[in-house]
């Protein structure tokens, strides 16, 4: 059982929750902007979908099986998996859409509502039960982090060409690795944040 001072698997998963919540908040701000924000919303939605896809997979591969076995609450675990399926279906729909499509903004916002509900149940029900169990959540944190990094790298390799437009002008086109190097950011999330910042716009190489 993890001690209070040590970061555990629940802390790692909840950090993901908080990070993606910030993205949803930023997306909502873009929907309220009067300017042309389609490209920014597209990039942010893609990042949200990637973060949630990786998060769901590490939960399903590592966290859920161990917790299901330890706490013997099949209904709670089944509900969490059904919520994952609903979110994945909406993610797939968002990924197939254009940012200018009529329902694009609405689907991203509804996905955010799904995730808010899911996070609330994990924080209030699943995580306390997990921490009260005999599962070594500190050790599991390391396994989750390693798998998260592996999956993120795989997804970034698939995205071998990124085009960023701002005000109709191409600001970046190239691979994800090159984007991170040029922006001097360690992760795709931070590189995108740099691109979205007026103070850190990049020119096409």
Structural notes for this entry:
Helix 1 packs antiparallel against helix 4, helix 3 runs antiparallel to helix 4 (104-132) and helix 6 (176-183) packs across helix 7. A two-stranded antiparallel ribbon has the order 1-2. The chain has seven helices and two strands. The chain is mainly α and 205 residues long. The termini are far apart. The chain has helices at 9-32, 38-71, 74-96, 104-132, 137-158, 176-183, 188-196, and strands spanning 162-166, 169-174. Mean pLDDT is 84; it is low at 165-170 and 198-205. The longest helix has 34 residues, at 38-71.
Main sheet? 2 strands, antiparallel
Low-confidence stretches: 165-170, 198-205
Strand order of the largest sheet: 1-2
Tell me the span between the first and last alpha carbons. 51 Å
Q: What is the element layout, followed by pairings?
A:
Blueprint: H1 9-32, H2 38-71, H3 74-96, H4 104-132, H5 137-158, E1 162-166, E2 169-174, H6 176-183, H7 188-196
Antiparallel strand pairs: 1-2
Helix pairs in contact: 1-2, 1-4, 1-5, 2-3, 2-4, 2-5, 2-7, 3-4, 6-7
Keywords, separated by commas or semicolons:
205 residues; mainly alpha; 7 helices; 73% helix; globular
Quick synopsis:
With 205 residues, this protein is mainly α.
């Amino acid at each position: 059982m993890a001690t209070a001072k040590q970061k555990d698997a629940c802390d790692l998963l909840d950090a993901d929750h908080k990070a993606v919540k910030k993205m949803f908040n930023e997306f909502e701000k873009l929907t309220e902007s009067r300017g042309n924000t389609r490209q920014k919303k597209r990039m942010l939605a893609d990042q949200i979908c990637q973060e949630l896809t990786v998060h769901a997979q590490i939960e399903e591969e590592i966290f859920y099986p161990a917790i299901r076995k330890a706490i013997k609450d099949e209904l709670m675990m089944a509900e969490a998996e059904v919520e994952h399926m609903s979110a994945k279906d909406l993610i797939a729909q968002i990924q197939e859409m254009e940012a200018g499509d009529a329902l694009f903004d609405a689907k991203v916002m509804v996905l955010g509502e799904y995730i808010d509900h899911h996070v609330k149940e994990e924080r209030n029900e699943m995580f306390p039960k997990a921490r009260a169990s005999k599962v070594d959540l500190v050790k599991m944190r390391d396994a989750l982090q390693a798998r998260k990094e592996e999956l993120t790298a795989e997804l970034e390799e698939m995205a071998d060409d990124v085009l960023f437009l701002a005000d109709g002008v191409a600001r970046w086109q190239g691979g994800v690795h090159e984007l991170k190097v040029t922006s001097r950011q360690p992760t795709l999330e931070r590189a995108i944040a740099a691109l979205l910042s007026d103070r850190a716009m990049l020119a096409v190489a």
